[in-house]
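User: Can you help me understand a structure? I only have the sequence.
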Amino acid sequence: MLNSNRRFTRGAAFSMTGDFAIKPPSDSEVVDKTIVDTDAFLNTLKFERVSSTSDQNCDEFFGHLLGERRGTLGIVRDEALSLLQRKVDPVVEIQKPVEHEEYTPYNTQPIEGETLLVPRGLQTYGLPIVRPKMEAWRYFNVREWVTNRYMESATESTCDLENVQVALEGRGAWLDDEECHARLIYIDGQFSEELSKVNDFVSNIIEIKNDDDPKLIQCLNRLPDGFTEKLAYEEVEAESLQSKIEEDPDLIMYSKLSKPNHNMGHPLTNFAINLQSGNAAFCALNSVKCESVAHVNIPSQKDVEKPIIVVHVASDGGAQQSYPRTLVRVGAESNASLQQFSIDLGGKVSKFTNGVTQVYLSKGAKLDHNILEDSVEEFEKYVDVDGDAGERERERVGKFKY
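Assistant: Let's start by predicting it. Here is the structure, written out as tokens:
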């Protein structure tokens, strides 16, 4: 059953569901909502932070993941943590006239003096947190998932490195030194120098300092869903855009480029939050907790003939939380191949892996990028709650052991 409310103004009816209109008004329904003093109007609005029980459970789960332990990314970590810990009110956008180029029926201007509920996901943290029935999570059992608690990683991995190498070779996630340009191996989020092969272009970053390469910091600081407002034209040195930006500064702004057709606008508007999947919050969480970054930095006009491999391993009996991070930057007119693996070596304990991979390609750059996730035979129950799915799959593919 669809829960909806209807707002009547001067005889016009706007049918609402969630935080946005489900149909544009006809010409006869258009309401004059001209605001003379925008600031004065916005100051009359009030916000309430009301959370349901499931919302509170989601926030407690995220707080558990955030914990007290912090990663080593320095200024990147601190920036992400400040975004998560801030308190924000949603952005209220004034309704544009129908003839305006940015007009959208999904912008519902409140009534003067109205008390508004803070959108789901912003009650506790400064970036939207995952909620049940969010568009991207509606088929995922969020309510059961957030009841889990995951142990943080140990200070050092105790895995037998020889056994890890044998396991990776068996899974096809290993190339010998003469077969690859570089190889970065991480076990439970920690860099394994013994199993890795580094060079000038491919290395592990242990920590970020304030005087490090500003573009490196800028790349790591970026968040999805429009929370980093500008396009990444500076990170990839898109100089050809500079003259166009001077003519039209909105050309590199996500909040402008996504309107009116996508109707997203500012990421903290009600409509935008409803369509987000919580990616920005989990990316920020990775920046707060990450202790190593696999950094691939290919200079301009460089042809890397052999593949680069990056392997993140979850060991049997190791940490239940891990935060892999991979940053790839390929210079102009360069060519490279990256094979990225996420390997679970087993265990009966549920694990939480919050990985982030960022790729920046300059003009004319080419990257052959493959990602393989090889998990154990038992899959998390939160994804598929259909008890008959296994039997249907057996009928589809024949005899298959689950």
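Now, to help you interpret it: The longest helix spans residues 53-66. The CA atoms of residues 61 and 146 lie 5 Å apart. Let me know which part you'd like to focus on.
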